[in-house]
Design goal:
Length: 591
């Protein structure tokens, strides 16, 4: 099985994310128009300053000076209103866009298959949902403000400079291309460097998530120093990559300042000569100097924005990789919308392996059948493929070869919703969510009644300890059920699966933290109260499977033996060895 994720290239990635701007298209049109209003008001100011100097002061016309001054104040106020309104609209668009994009990413992640999620780590996904979306969100808000304002100011100021003094504008014609060449070169380098920065953030999040999730294990093994070292190495790598990226773009600032200073000196020198020769005016020089500074200042802003844009493009590439990911497991166009609910399971010549087909398979030529209402147990050494076999039944993965059938139908021909509605699984890690016990038990079937919830809890031998809490079923659980013991969490996970009222119940080593006596009561309650349910039990303790209708022994990726306990004791050396290693030879019946 090969899982591929498509990557987009640079600017195309940002373009691919633009459809999420559609709900805000009207505001996205109004915002630049308001910014254009502010830019026009700003560009008129130096011209009015020129008039005050060359007309008002030259002629000592105080009335003219006052009128021009009031006009400057009025235009500045209009520009301020346009800029402030643009800012408010830009924030509204940016936040809405970020919300929609995160929702789309989260929906996509939820649609991905186990095989996809095996490749995309938790820390990496957290980075993409948070930091990467923020980078794209911020560049959008910047685009609606600075990416509109800056080019308009730059072009407008250059045009006004040409109108004000065509000869002095030649200075900018020489300087601007040199600055742009340097700017584009730095941007090209920055894109690769900021991609590396985002990868380093992935690593920091992964290490952090692992450390915090396993903090009790860390303390139990006195590995705080080791984990602190791991985290230190991760953030040191992030720091070094970020410094390298910022060091590269830092060259642009001095380059711009040098160009700006050269421009100022040139305007003052050549403009001063024009004034001395009588071909220019002081106000004209002041106005030209202002327009030159606006143009070069805008180029500096372009440099800053390209740095941010480089990081946003790198983030957009990573977001598109998620959005382009295709779930490995998809429903067939004519998939069955529901099952008969008989609970019959059949695996015929099934071969399965993780990753590419060239890798060694985990299961080879598996043949087994479980009749409705039967209990089938799967035994084998660690890594024998017991959990993998169980995961093929609800179609968490597809077999490389062979057929997995439920109720006589290939699972690939059944909708995932219908299949997993009938197949409830209790996994090895009994993950519980923050919320009440009642909410956790209803997780797979929110409409379940209180009576159904309590019945499932009683079967799972969880009712008594639930009622020992002050709030009973309304007791709030901490993160991952931290305020419960391992056995209590496993019993709640079993109850959660029973609430679904499935036709097939898979217990994947789900009583490993439960004492033998309680495990026996759970098994007995399921046998007597869930008589029509087919049970597939993955177990390490052989005492769990002694009464199973069928026991499947896995060895070397294949079915080494299958049958009842008595049959296997008589025919399977592997099963007999497992039995003796756990219960002792004296416990062997009929010996």
């Amino acid at each position: 099985m090969t899982v591929t994720t498509a990557k987009s290239t640079s600017w195309k990635s940002l373009g691919r994310l633009m459809p999420y701007l559609s709900p805000y298209r009207t505001m996205a049109i109004v915002a630049p128009l308001l910014m254009m209003l502010e830019v026009v008001m700003d560009l008129i100011q130096p011209r009015l300053t020129q008039n005050i100097i060359d007309v008002g002061l030259a002629n000592l016309d105080m009335g003219y000076i006052v009128r021009m001054g009031l006009m400057m104040v009025g235009l500045a106020t209009v520009g301020m209103i346009g800029g402030a309104t643009n800012g408010i609209i830009s924030v509204r668009i940016g936040q809405g866009y970020g919300f929609d994009l995160r929702q789309a990413l989260y929906r996509k992640i939820q649609s991905l298959s186990f095989a996809n999620l095996d490749i995309l780590g938790t820390g990496e996904l957290v980075t993409r949902l948070t930091n990467d979306v923020t980078q794209v969100q911020e560049i959008l808000m910047m685009a609606l403000r600075m990416l509109v304002r800056t080019p308009l100011l730059m072009v407008g100021a250059f045009v006004m400079l040409v109108i004000t003094s065509p000869r002095l504008s030649l200075i900018l014609v020489v300087l601007a291309p040199l600055v742009m060449i340097g700017l584009l070169r730095i941007h090209k380098l920055a894109h690769a460097l900021f991609s590396a920065v985002q990868d380093a953030i992935d690593n920091v999040n992964t290490v952090t998530q692992e450390n915090l999730a396993s903090v009790r294990v860390v303390k139990a093994f006195v590995r705080q120093r080791h984990e602190t070292g791991r985290f230190g190495a991760a953030i040191d790598n992030l720091m070094n990559r970020f410094i390298k990226a910022e060091r590269t773009v830092a060259f642009f600032g001095p380059l711009l300042m040098t160009a700006m200073n050269l421009g100022m000196v040139s305007v003052i020198y050549f403009g001063g000569r024009q004034v001395i020769q009588g071909t220019g005016q002081i106000g004209q020089i002041v106005s030209s100097l202002n327009y030159l500074m606006i143009t070069l200042g805008s180029l500096m802003m372009v440099g800053m924005m390209l740095t941010r844009l480089s990081r946003a493009v790198a983030s957009a590439d990573r977001l598109i990789e998620i959005l382009n990911s295709a779930p490995v497991i998809v429903d067939a166009p004519d998939a069955l919308p529901e099952l008969a609910g008989e609970g019959r399971v059949r695996l015929q010549d099934v071969t399965f392996g993780y990753g590419d087909s060239g890798e060694a398979p985990v299961l080879v030529d598996i043949d087994l059948e479980v009749e409705p209402g039967q209990t089938a147990a799967i035994l084998g050494s660690t890594g024998a493929g017991k959990s993998t076999l169980a995961h093929l039944i609800p179609r968490f993965y597809d077999a490389r070869a062979g057929t997995v059938m439920v109720d006589g139908v290939d699972v690939r021909e059944i909708s995932q919703h219908a299949l997993r509605r009938e197949v409830a699984i209790v996994m090895q890690d009994p993950f519980l969510f923050t919320g009440t016990i009642r909410d956790n038990l209803r997780y797979g079937r929110p409409e379940a009644t209180d009576e159904e919830v309590e019945r499932a809890a009683r079967i799972a031998q969880a009712h008594d300890f639930i009622m020992s809490f002050g709030d009973g079923y309304d007791t709030e659980l901490g993160q991952r059920g931290v305020n419960l013991s391992g056995g209590q969490k496993q019993r709640l996970a079993i109850a959660r699966a029973l609430v679904m009222d499935p036709s097939i119940l898979i217990l994947d080593d789900s009583t490993s933290s439960v004492d033998v006596a309680t495990e026996g009561r759970i098994r007995e309650a399921i046998d007597t109260q869930m008589t029509g349910v087919t049970r597939i039990v993955v177990a390490q303790r052989i005492s769990t499977v002694l009464s199973a209708d069928k026991i499947i022994v896995l060895e070397g990726a294949r079915v080494a033996a299958q049958g009842t306990h008595d049959e296997l004791m008589a025919t399977s050396p592997i099963y007999r060895e497992i039995f003796e290693s756990q219960l002792g030879s004296g416990a062997i019946p009929n010996e």
